Each structure stands twice: as structure tokens, then as C-alpha cells.
């Protein structure tokens, strides 16, 4: 992780101590900046995208796995059931909202909310989910559970809940084996929508939508963001793109949001990076490959500036970043929207600084901190009143409450597992890139390590759900 410096004028004798504290972050103090593509550089329209993703998966289940026509009901009818941070206990068909210690805060079976008594009867008096240590240690999904924490898989919350309700309605014994089949079918529908070859083949439901009507589902990058990327490189920073999207889809999206010259914004481009494995797996298991005409070619041992590669690992990338920055240990920051792929692994395995993109902040509304040093963010252009109501209705749930915290039966605030991972692995958190591009590179952001508040890393202010 890159050293970070206080926004106050430091005592020269105390600079190292303040840097180690990591209580502030500035882009001026890093040597390399990495960015994710989807839901980071490319900001999608939440309501339209969720509806389209759900429709593509539900139609596949009805047509290929013979599920009932009720699966085709619009996603929006149950949008309040959807919220970031829910965990599916796949073998039981239960959705769980977990505290940072693994305690079950709220639960449902399919769409049906579970009572306190039902939770205790299923999970024991302590309401502890037994796989929590495994989840918290690796923060990866398994065949037993799935944590919904990014916008590509969150429509699956409503999909799987409706599948559970469908199963209960038509149950005929062997419930566990049927639940296992249901989960396999859900994974099959997900893979059909997103399999890499579907983009070129114009199949799967998702890719045809974003190819045929891109601006129905995504926003163009503003001139502020384009200028910010140029300023980073002009300031001597190495700028790289690392996305799990394959090269053909990446090229299509980047052209739509940045322009035909999109490659000129980056020193190196990595597609199909297969995060989080890009960070967690050793280099010998994650080689880089050349990319020619959107096809992955031969293994590559050394990376070069101005080229694009596929797959790979952070250690080999660091060799190039050392060359580009002329630093033995360059300070790197990575910006992305996924806790599981973009925040937790680069912090844990690469020790990079991390910036999390969290659109829920804008959906909930924020209490802006107007006391921070430096120019204010362009508040008028990012008013919560301008946020799309249909998207807000998806990202903010009355049934589940906010994804970062919950209220215990005693009324005290309880941090969720996602809230814990966020503030322990992200340095700062913003609703989208505009909030970074609106500020000079030397702006000092308080981080989640700041001792003045447990949530000091939210910028321009903490979500309203964290208001005491």
C-alpha cells in the first residue's frame, strides 16, 4: 500500500510517522493508478441494466430448464427485495444479512421473511452462520453460498428467490437435492448471460442489449473524467486498465464511454484478468497472454508499454510498473466497484491502496463533510435529487435495510460483513469517478484509518444510513 500524508502542514521530523498512519490519501502521492472498467469507468444505468439482466436469465430458465412462466414477471415488481451484501445459503434457499461477526441479522426463505424463531430453529440460538470463517478469510464464493456484492450478479437475488418460491410451491420431497439442482440451474443461467463467446455470437441476452442499444444501459464518461485521466499521465503516473471483461467487450464498451481513442488513456491494458485470481493466485498459475484481433494467443513473460494483454497476475504487472515509474517499490492505487474482486484482494495480496466505487452512497443521499481541506466537490452536479428514482428503489431496500449496517434488537448500530470488509480494505469510497475527477490530484482525502470517525473514508460524505 502506498504511503499517505496528512492534509495539515507536517512537522518534518514527524512525516514518516504520519505517512505510516495512512490517515489521508492523495493521488499526488501515488506512482501508478489502476482502474476497473465495468461500473467504474463505465457507469451503467442501474434500473435498465438490472431489468435486462434479469430478463435474459429468467427467459433462459423458462426456455431451457422449463421453469414456470411466473419467472418472467418484471424484475421491478420485487426490486425492494434486492440489496447489495445479501448472502444466499444455497443448500437451504435462504438469504442472509450477516453482521461482521457472522451473526444473522435478517433472513428470508425465498421471498418470505423469516421470523426470529425461524432463524433460531434453522441456525441455532446464537444465530451464527457456520461458514462465516471461510467467507471472511477468503471473501470468495463457493458451491454452498454466494455473496451478492456487485451489480452484474445482484439481479440474481430476485431470480433465485423466485426459484425457491417456485420450488416450495411445487415441492414433492427430496427438498435438498431439488435445492441443489435449482442452484445449478441459476449458475447455468448466469453463465449463459455472461459467457465470453456470447459477445461475438450475439447471444445470451445480455451482450445483444449493450451492443444494440449501448446508451440505454450506460453513461458516457464526462469530459472531467477524460481530463482527469490525462492529468494523471501528465503528472508522471502510470495508468493501467485491469478488467475481467474480455477484450472484444472491453473494446466495445470503452469506445462507447471514452471514444475511439480510448487506448491512448492507458499505459497498459489487461483484459479477462479473472479477478480476484489476478491478485490471489501465484504467477505460475496466472500467466499473461498476448491478444490479437480479440483472441488470446501465446504466453507472455514480459509486458511492454502501450500494449494489451489477457489474464495475468499483479506480480508480473508490477515489473512493468517499476520500469514505467522508475521506482523500485511504486505506490499503486486500484479503483473498482467490487469488494470481492477490486478491493479486498489488491489490499490483502498486493498491499495496494484501494478506492471503492459505491453508488449506494448517492442513492441513499450523503451528509457531506464541508470541513475538509481543499475545494468542495461539484455538489450541484451530483445532487441526490438528480439520482434516478427507479435505480434508488433497487439499491435502497426497506425490507433489508442498508447494506453497511443494521439495527440490533437493542437499537444499537451493527456493522455488516460488507461494512467491515469495506472499511478494512478500502482506503476511501466514492459514489462514482466524477467525485475524484472534480478535485485536483493533490487533494487530501481522509481514509477509513482516520481516528476521528469509523466512516471517515466516505467522500464527499458518509451515506445517510450511517447517521447516528
From TrEMBL:
The keyword Metal-binding applies. Keywords: Acetylation, Hydrolase, Magnesium, Metal-binding. The keyword Acetylation applies. SUPFAM superfamilies: HAD-like (SSF56784). Pfam families: 5_nucleotid (PF05761). One of its GO terms (molecular function) is metal ion binding. It comes from the Eukaryota. PANTHER family: 5'-NUCLEOTIDASE DOMAIN-CONTAINING (PTHR12103), 5'-NUCLEOTIDASE DOMAIN-CONTAINING PROTEIN 1 (PTHR12103:SF38). Belongs to the 5'(3')-deoxyribonucleotidase family. This is 5'-nucleotidase domain-containing protein 1. It comes from Branchiostoma lanceolatum (Common lancelet). The gene is NT5DC1.
